[in-house]
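testing teh design pipeline on a random one, pls ignore if ur not involved
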């Protein structure tokens, strides 16, 4: 088959885990003998086409105030204008449609679309091509994509402007997606509760990872606890630091990997505790090594995480996960098997779980066994097969 994957970001230009997953899928499909092309945005004004690891990659620059790669550094007014122009971008519509008409793929798989705008769905359907959409977040129903108010609290009562945004998105995407997938059932249910995709086929497809060949042995001379991810408050890093500082044991270390807008504030919270170490942003290979050296990883999110790659990578490294009971996270973690769940924002509960595990390394060994075993269901082979079956089903239906 000839398969086109649309993703607003694509390696080597990455920000989060979604684009890494997209690249792995594209390259795995190519290795299976499929002809694969990717349409993504360019970090610069120049547009290009190149072949990376067997995948033809088109990088286009839809007209807007600035590129997607510069979004985080812009003032709020500029961001608001950028989002308004990104609702339906005619320039993006034409550029994507021109590529699809020239390449004529059998199926198009749309992933994160911000930067292309909702027009990308029309580009595909105007060409009469089956469309698979993978929801990596809540972009369709929330301008911030995380269902949080500006003060960081969970949004249960959207403001009028947010309802207008969601209603407009619903109209623009209605009838254009042939198959919806998401790594968690939580996201599928959340979208449907907001009246999206009520008549669309859906599939929960957990992320795929490269599995470790065997369970890794750990060292318990010092208990190493790690957080890998964005250093911002919606990820709950402040909750982890506060909980850790109350632990009196000196034979323990907290390793924090990543960067973000609240990094300096977190460092101030931890500056008089030598057990807390900030490592900054690490390249992927070095970060994977850090998972293997950790006894525990902690994901203290206070936002609706979909299906964090951090959990998958930790499990395959035989490292148990302590994580917030929120969003799609509970679909990956089973208490007393491959980790523990705690109430989002509850630093006392997190502290108690950490202290119990630190004082009892034997319990860690059992969790490590469960972590490694649970990772086996998330192989890249399973991930690839699930999408191949969907592509082939849609392609047969159009013959």
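output:
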């Amino acid at each position: 088959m000839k398969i086109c994957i649309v993703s607003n970001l694509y390696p080597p230009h990455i920000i989060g885990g979604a684009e890494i997953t997209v690249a792995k899928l594209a390259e795995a499909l190519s290795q299976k003998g499929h002809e694969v092309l990717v349409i993504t945005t360019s970090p610069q004004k120049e547009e290009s086409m190149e072949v990376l690891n067997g995948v033809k990659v088109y990088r286009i620059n839809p007209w807007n105030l600035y590129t997607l790669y510069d979004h985080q550094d812009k003032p709020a007014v500029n961001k608001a204008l950028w989002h308004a122009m990104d609702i339906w971008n005619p320039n993006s519509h034409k550029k994507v449609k021109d590529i699809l008409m020239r390449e004529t793929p059998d199926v198009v798989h749309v992933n994160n679309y911000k930067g292309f705008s909702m027009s990308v769905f029309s580009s595909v359907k105007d060409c009469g091509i089956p469309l698979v959409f993978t929801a990596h977040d809540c972009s369709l129903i929330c301008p911030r994509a995380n269902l949080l108010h500006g003060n960081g609290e969970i949004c249960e009562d959207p403001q009028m402007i947010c309802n207008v945004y969601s209603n407009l998105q619903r109209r623009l995407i209605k009838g254009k997606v042939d198959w919806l997938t998401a790594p968690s059932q939580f996201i599928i249910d959340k979208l449907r509760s907001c009246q999206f995709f009520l008549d669309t086929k859906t599939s929960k497809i957990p992320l795929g990872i490269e599995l470790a060949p065997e369970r890794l042995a750990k060292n318990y001379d010092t208990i190493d606890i790690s957080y890998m991810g964005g250093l911002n408050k919606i990820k709950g890093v402040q909750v982890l630091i506060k909980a850790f500082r109350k632990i009196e044991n000196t034979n323990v270390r907290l390793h924090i990997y990543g960067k973000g807008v609240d990094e300096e504030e977190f460092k101030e919270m931890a500056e008089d505790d030598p057990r807390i170490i900030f490592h900054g942003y690490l390249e992927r290979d070095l970060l994977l090594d850090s998972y293997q050296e950790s006894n525990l990883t902690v994901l203290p999110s206070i936002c609706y995480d979909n299906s964090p790659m951090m959990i998958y990578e930790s499990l395959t490294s035989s490292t148990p996960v302590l994580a917030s009971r929120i969003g799609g996270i509970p679909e990956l973690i089973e208490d007393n098997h491959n980790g523990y769940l705690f109430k989002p924002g509850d630093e006392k509960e997190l502290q108690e779980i950490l202290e119990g595990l630190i004082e009892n390394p034997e319990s860690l060994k059992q969790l490590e066994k469960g972590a490694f075993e649970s990772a086996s269901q998330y192989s890249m082979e399973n991930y690839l097969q699930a999408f191949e079956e969907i592509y082939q089903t849609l392609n047969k239906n159009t013959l």
